[in-house]
Design brief:
Shape: extended
Oligomer: single chain
Number of strands: 2
């Protein structure tokens, strides 16, 4: 019969403990434009320029150094070629490089980057249009049950 096995020992000591905790970075998503403009942007298709501008506004761009921007500028011709004629080889190279820069949630977790979303303005607790307020539904069920 399949299962998870016995529970772990409460006295177990992990000898290969991760000691990178002090190197974790927390950044705030502020939609600020950072970094240099894309050189020769007029030569690229609009989707490539949008891709680069998205990276300039990405929260992790706050911790980019010159070599990170250089990597993005080197990737721009590959991204442009991919948009013009998609191929799995190009996509694999782009994905690998973007991953090293923290493109996805999992990539940022590996890089110990935490993105702190801005707090909503205190204009009330109403959800956006088209979004159900689950708290109101729960309160209604609780009052109906009593």
């Amino acid at each position: 019969m399949a299962g998870y096995g016995p529970p772990p020992s409460e006295r177990k000591v992990r000898r290969n403990k991760d000691d990178f905790e002090e190197q974790a970075v927390t950044i705030v998503a502020d939609d600020e434009v950072r970094g240099p403009e894309l050189p020769h942007s007029a030569l690229y298709c609009p989707r490539t320029v949008d891709w680069y501008e998205t990276w300039r506004r990405a929260p992790q761009a706050a911790v980019f150094v010159s070599t990170d921007w250089q990597r993005l500028q080197m990737l721009a011709p590959l991204v442009d070629a991919y948009f013009l004629e998609p191929s799995t080889k190009l996509l694999a190279e782009i994905r690998l490089s973007e991953s090293l820069l923290g493109a996805t949630h999992v990539d940022r977790m590996r890089g110990r980057i935490t993105v702190e979303l801005p707090k909503p303005a205190s204009g009330g607790t109403r959800p956006p249009a088209g979004v159900a307020d689950m708290r109101a539904a729960r309160r209604k069920r609780m009052t109906d049950a009593s």
